[in-house]
Structures are given as C-alpha cells and as structure tokens.
Amino acid sequence: MVNEALQRVPNDDGNKNIDQVNQIRDSLAIMGDNNTAFSLPQPHLQRTKLCELKDSDLDPLYVEKREQLKQLVTSIIRPKIVQGKPLNGKEFVSFLEQILEALNKGEIPSTGSLVEIFNKAILERCLKIYTGGMDRLNLPLPETRLEKEHEESRAESMKVFDEQHFGHRHVQQSVNKLDEEMEKMYKSYNLANEYKSSKLCEELYTHCEDVMDQLQVLRLPSMAKFNAGFLQCNQSFEEKCVGPSKIKYEQRMNKMLGRSRSLFIKEYNHRLFNWLVAFSLVMVVIGRFVIKFILLELGAWVLFIFLETYTRMFWSAESLYYNPGWHFIVSAWENIVYSPLLDLDRWAIHVGVLLLILLAYWRCSGRRKQGSHSLLPLYNSHRDGSNHQRSD
Questions:
Q1: Which residues pair with 343 in a beta bridge?
Q2: Is the peptide bond before 140 cis (omega within 30 degrees of 0)?
Q3: 3-state SS, one letter per residue, for 171-191
Q4: How much helix, strand and coil, in percent to the nearest 5, is found in the chain?
Q5: CA atoms lying within 13 Å on the CB side of residue 165
Q6: What UniProt keywords are attached to this protein's entry (predicted)?
Q7: Would you list the DSSP string of 10-43?
Q8: Between vectors from CA 38 to CA 32 and to CA 40, what angle results, nearest 5°?
C-alpha cells in the first residue's frame, strides 16, 4: 500500500504542481525503504475533540491497539545519539522539532536532494571526462571522425557514471541530463570544427591562388614548371584541407585551377614566341660581335628567319603553333628552362652572370695565347700584325 501510494503521478502536460508532488514522493520513497504498517481503529466519533478526551473516553479497542503500537515502536527503536550523548524522549522531541523547522526553511537538505547533489558531482566528473577526450583532438577533423570520437568519449563517460551513480529512482533523470549536456558540448565542438576547417581551407586556397598568379608571370614561360606547381598545389590542398568545409572549397579550388590553366595555355605560346624572337636576335649579336662564333650566329639567324617568315606567310602566329617544327622548339625549350635539377627561371640571373664571367675570362685568355689555333670556326682577326711585316 505504501509503495503504491508513493508511485509517481503521470504528468503528460508538464504541470509544475504535479512535478513538485512527484519530487516529494521520490524523497519519501527513498527515506521509506524500510517501513512497517500498523492499523489503528478510529479513536472516537468526535474527531475534533480528540485532544480533549481522556483514555477512558476513547474506544477501548483503540486504546488496546495503541498500547501494542507503543510496544512495537519500543522494540524497534534505537536511542538517538547527538554529540555522543543518547537523547531521552523530551530531548528527542525537541531535536526532531528543530530538524523539521530547518527542513521547512530549506536549511538542511532532504534525502532526495542529497542524492541529487551526490549524482551532480558525478555528472560533473563525467562531463570532465568527456571534455578531456574531446579537447585532445586536433581540429579540424572530418565529420565522421569527429562523430566517432564523440561516441567514444560519450561511452567512456557513461561507463563511469554507471559505475559511480547513487540511487535508482533518479538514475534515468541524471542520465538524460548527462546526455543532454554532452550533446550541447558536441554542438560546440562541431561549430569549432567548422570554423577551423573553413579557416584552414581558406588559407590553402589563398596560397594556391597566389601560386597560380606567380606562375602566370614567369620570366621564362614553362609548361613543365606550371604543371609541377599545379600538381603540388592541388595535392597539398587535398591532403591538408579537412573537415566540413572541404567539399565547398574543393569546388572553388577546381574552378580556380581550371581558369589558371586555361589562361596560362592561352598566353604560353604567344609569350614563348616573343621570347624566342628576342633570344634569336641576342644570339646573333653575341655570335657576331662577342664570341665571334659563326655557327652560333647562323643558328640564331635560322631561328629568327623561321619564326618571322612563317608568321608572315600564314598571316598569324597561331598557325605556327600547329607546326611540327614548333613542337620540336617547344620541347627543346622546356628541357632547357625547367627540370627537377635546374629551374632556369629561378636562376636565370645567376646563370647569366656566370656566363658573362666565363665569357670575359675566355676572351681575356684568348688574347694572351699568341698563335693558338681554335677548333671553333671563329672570325679571323687581323689586329695582330706579326704575319704582315713590311719588307725593307
């Protein structure tokens, strides 16, 4: 009967008064785990005057049952010890009144609230276990990985709670609260993951965009170098850009790389043509007046005439780009300008300075060597008058 009377009342509408009643019943149920029922008949018909009636005025059966109840209470009661001193009846009544007054004022926690406080401390420890596991993660992470880590940290936290929680009636309520708090924290970690993923992918995208812009303005245009930078940038983005923002930035990345490649290919042949024309003229001057190497000058003239006459014959430079000879020139140019061992665009100035030094040294040493015969077909010099002496 007592257990049925202390059952929770259904509260589908969320009525606050019914919630309060259920809390009281839960507290009474915890405090009344060990109870003994004893029935008493009605003492007298005039209930309002019971305090004024003597035992002789009461129902004899009631008086008899009351004496039996006293004996039962006497048999199971133990003296109350306060500060090491057993209390007598009057002292115990006074102590009980003080306790009831403190409980009514909320100064002393009830058994139900003690259970809640104890479980609250466990909840805090379990939440620290969850946050400790999640804080070790190096965000950003893929969404599936973050969800997996969340489930593992949640399971560990729930395991600790199952091992340390107190009571049975408040367990489900505490479990729901713990789960709710962990879900709130998980949403926060999701937001942090999205922010860090977006920031990281944006940095990688901006870096690749800068790299593509730099490749567009190479001093010495090279398709091989552009393709190498293109692949390196794309691979770096694929490896380092992780998290929920990756799909969005992958689309932007593909569009940007596609535009950069199209623009570079469009300008590549035109820039290379102009560069080769200038290069051929420079080689003519060097072969004619600097090192005086006939074959170098002839080769430069052949290249210059081929480039100029072909475009004049077919009215445009674009038609040249489909010629097999042009493809041979492009292949040779790519092998000279860029390779895994030497990036001529990067070291062009250094190589040019070195060549000038070697050329100056070669010219100076050649002048000091009188009568030496060069294996190269050089222009004859008549500045030396040793072979053209006047006759006396």
A1: 338
A2: yes
A3: HHHHHHHHHHHHHHHHHHHHH
A4: 75, 0, 25
A5: 20
A6: Membrane, Transmembrane, Transmembrane helix
A7: P-TT--HHHHHHHHHHHHHHHHTSS---------
A8: 135
CA dihedral 173, 176, 182, 186 (to 10 degrees): -160
Structure-block tokens of residue 206: 């901006």
